[in-house]
Amino acid sequence: MSRLSLFNSPLFLGFDQFERAVDRIAKNAADSYPPYNVEQVAENRLLITVAVAGFGADDLQVQLEDNQLVVRGRQSDETDRVYLHRGIATRQFQRSFVLAEGIEVTGAKLDNGLLSIDLERPMVEPQVRTIEISSSGGAESRTIEAKVRSAAGRKAR
Question: What are the backbone dihedrals phi and psi of residue 105, each rounded to the nearest 5 degrees, phi first?
Fold first, then answer.
């Protein structure tokens, strides 16, 4: 069964990257392993906590791919263990989070089976820039500039 795309219309040219992002989000929503929390810990800080019981720091990988935070887990097989019951899921996984523009990953920590990833949106200081205005008549603009300078020189005296 083919999937009907919302962006198939010729009126939506160039939206294929957006469509891929929507597909990734839908795919991630369908997969529930491993469970995770997203908390707002301050006005500009978030904390993602992923439950990765049984995984060590060497078994996990956290990467930024474009605007996505990707967490991967893969354990090496231990053939020397014999399980009578294996209830702790240790299958490989990939969990992706689409990040808004400007969000930065500031750190990751593994503690007691929980992988915590700190995110921050830095406060952007407004920048004021003065843009020089030039006119098409080069001689006219130099004359105006000279008059302004000479007037400023007279005021300083």
Answer: -85, 120
Measured distance CA(114)–CA(55) in Å, rounded:
9
* pLDDT one digit per residue (tens) for the chain, 157 residues: 455 566 666 666 666 666 766 666 666 555 678 899 999 999 899 999 999 988 999 999 999 998 899 999 998 777 788 888 887 767 889 999 989 888 899 999 999 999 999 999 888 788 888 888 888 765 555 555 555 555 555 555 5
C-alpha to C-alpha distance for 84 and 61, rounded to whole angstroms: 30
Task: Evaluate whether 121 touches 43 at the Cβ level (below 8 Å).
Answer: no
Structural domains of the chain ordered from first start: 16-120 (2.60.40.790)
- For 61, phi and psi rounded to 5 degrees? -145, 130
Give residue for tokens 């702790």: 88
Compute and round to an integer the Cα radius of gyration of the chain: 28
Q: What is the pTM of this model?
A: 0.60
Using CA atoms, how far apart are residues 149 and 141, in angstroms rounded to an integer? 12
Question: Is the dihedral angle over the CA atoms 110, 115, 118, 119 positive or is it negative?
Answer: positive
What one-letter code names the amino acid at 97? F
Task: Report CA torsion sign: 51, 53, 55, 57.
Answer: positive
